[in-house]
Amino acid sequence: MTDAEHRRRIEQVADSFLTPNPPRQPVPLTLQGARPLQVDTPHGTVALLHAGSGPAVLLLHGWEGQASDMASFAHALLERGFSVFAMDLPAHGASSGSQTSIPQSAMALQAVAGVLPPLHAVIAHSVGSPVVVEALAAGMPAQRVVLLSAPARYEDYARQYAMAAGLNADETASMLSLLRESRGIDVRQVSLPARAARLAQPALFIHSADDRVVPIEDSIASAAAWPGARHMRVDGLGHRRILADAAVVEAAIEFVAESALTCTA
Length: 265
Hints:
By secondary structure, the protein is of the alpha/beta class. The chain has 9 helices and 8 strands.
């Protein structure tokens, strides 16, 4: 392989890392009385679905997910009198773009939050969790946070992706440098435990011990670093079944509702 071919291979892996595949079975989120919204952001147009009235709760799916992943939470929130904003990450669903990253998605989320009613809470799954935390660390207001199956460090997953794509250690380092220098994405800076230490919102982490995508140790470390955060360990729910589990949904909604009267819609 020539040097040019070698560089191109690293670029291809970097591009692939930033490019989510669409869901195998796209499922629209259906909520009674819902209306679609679009918000222009520095990283493209972001699509949301809004339903209900009352304290505002934003729902955010994970990488290669879709808004309907959060359907159980959306319906439960509406039943409790909350207003739901279900957001498609950039390059997902009806949002624009073909590539995104955690920092870019966080910037888009900040722009979205800037035009929504004050957020009483945010509930996020998987990669949606560090997206939310990056936005909170940059000043996005939200009173309470629920993070499901939350990964801890972006660098870990970038390295795992590179190695799975066949890059060796030196090539992986080159890919991380490429992301930082050419794409403006420093994966080393995206650390949920590091951000958590400077956040004050009440937070609830929920994670299944048998999660094979994101190990539960990730959220344990993040919850330990977040002042006052709670951690709820469940089992047998993997990475995605956790989203439809009745006990998990109830715990999340109860946590969100603890101080709902302090939020104005």
